[in-house]
Write a structure and sequence with these properties.
Layout: E1 2-3, E2 22-25, E3 28-31, E4 35-36, H1 45-57, E5 62-64, H2 73-81, E6 89-94, E7 96-98, E8 106-108, H3 112-126, E9 133-137, E10 144-145, H4 155-167, E11 174-177, H5 181-187, E12 192-196, H6 207-216, E13 219-220, H7 240-249, H8 253-264, H9 277-285, E14 290-291, H10 293-300, E15 310-311
Parallel strand pairs: 4-5, 5-6, 6-9, 9-11, 10-15, 11-12, 12-13
Antiparallel strand pairs: 1-14, 2-3, 7-8
Helix pairs in contact: 1-2, 3-4, 7-8
């Protein structure tokens, strides 16, 4: 029998064990199951704040956000809900900006001065003097917008401003998102704490990047952990092997997909998002799933079905 994670010996501020065990991130020890705040949307603000508080009560001490989630709305929720005493590591990202009137409500903001402005906006909306981790969202690979014109910026120029802001104390650590193996290799001398790429049981093209991260002590924090939400893209929950494992263990297919990721490597941390309290509880519970060898082998044998989608 193989466990998905190790138990934490250090209690979180809530006194709860860390879901999925613990792992290093940006110089801290955090829960391997974190919380991605992207799905929080304007509506019942009190319910959203309560959901964030519930995440803390579950032992989650790693929350992923961005200024361009709701044009600062999500950051405002986090500022209201999360207290310094909670000991939560808040990770944000730059490289894009809100564009409410645009086709995708999002535009790229890749230029160095835009990255600096993005950090400043995050600091203001989060009410922080320093953001523990900021991920630079590139456009090398993966679903999403593609850089054109003056948004095609050399990685070295972007890293220079990120390192400068780290030296200034505005950010604690630098991460990368939607990057190629070549870009990650080039960036290693700058000191990279985290990589966020699209990755799941059915989309494992980035195995070489994950392995490099494991070798370098870099956290791998996949987005789209259950496959893509874009139409026509594969979903983990549609796989027969996943459904079989779910029935056998009395779990949901989504929980099986999350648990497989935790088992993939010890440097994998998850940030599944939800606006529903029951789904939050189910995501946390995925951290306790144990696979026997036969089940794990069947899941590992699921073929990669990924494909690249570029928007815009």
């Amino acid at each position: 029998m193989a466990s998905t994670g190790t138990s934490s010996h250090e209690p979180t501020a809530s006194g709860a064990p860390r879901p999925g065990g613990d792992a290093p991130l940006a110089g801290r020890t955090v829960s391997r199951i974190g919380y991605g705040a992207m799905q929080l949307r304007p509506g019942d603000r009190a319910a959203a704040v309560a959901l964030l508080r519930r995440a803390v009560e579950f032992g989650i001490d790693h929350i992923d956000t961005a200024q361009f989630y709701g044009d600062g709305f999500v950051n405002g929720l986090i500022r209201e809900a999360i207290r310094p005493a909670d000991g939560v590591l808040v990770a944000s990202k730059v490289g894009a900006a809100s564009d409410p009137g645009g086709v995708h409500s999002l535009r790229l903001a890749q230029r160095p001065e835009e990255l600096r402005a993005g950090v400043e906006d995050n600091l203001t909306s989060l009410g922080l003097d320093r953001i523990p981790l900021v991920n630079l969202r590139r456009t090398d690979i993966g679903p999403g917008l593609r850089a054109e014109g003056d948004q095609v910026v050399d990685l070295d120029d972007q890293l220079a401003v990120m390192v400068a802001m780290r030296d200034e104390g505005k950010i604690g650590a630098i991460g990368l998102s939607s990057v190629s193996l070549d870009s990650l290799s080039r960036a290693l001398p700058a000191g990279i704490a985290c990589v966020q790429n699209a990755y799941s049981l059915v989309a494992r093209d980035d195995d070489p990047l994950l392995d490099l991260c494991a070798a370098e002590g870099i956290a791998w924090v996949p987005y789209f952990p259950l496959g893509s939400g874009f139409p026509g893209m594969p979903k983990v929950t549609d796989e027969p092997a996943v459904a079989t494992a779910a029935r056998s263990l009395g779990r949901t297919p989504a929980q099986i997909g999350l648990a497989w990721l935790l088992h993939r490597a010890p440097n994998v941390l998850l940030i599944p998002g939800t606006s529903d309290a029951e789904h939050l509880a189910a995501n946390v519970a995925a951290g306790s799933i144990v696979f026997d060898d036969a089940t794990l082998a069947a899941l590992d044998a699921v073929p990669t079905r990924s494909g690249d989608i570029a928007l815009g």
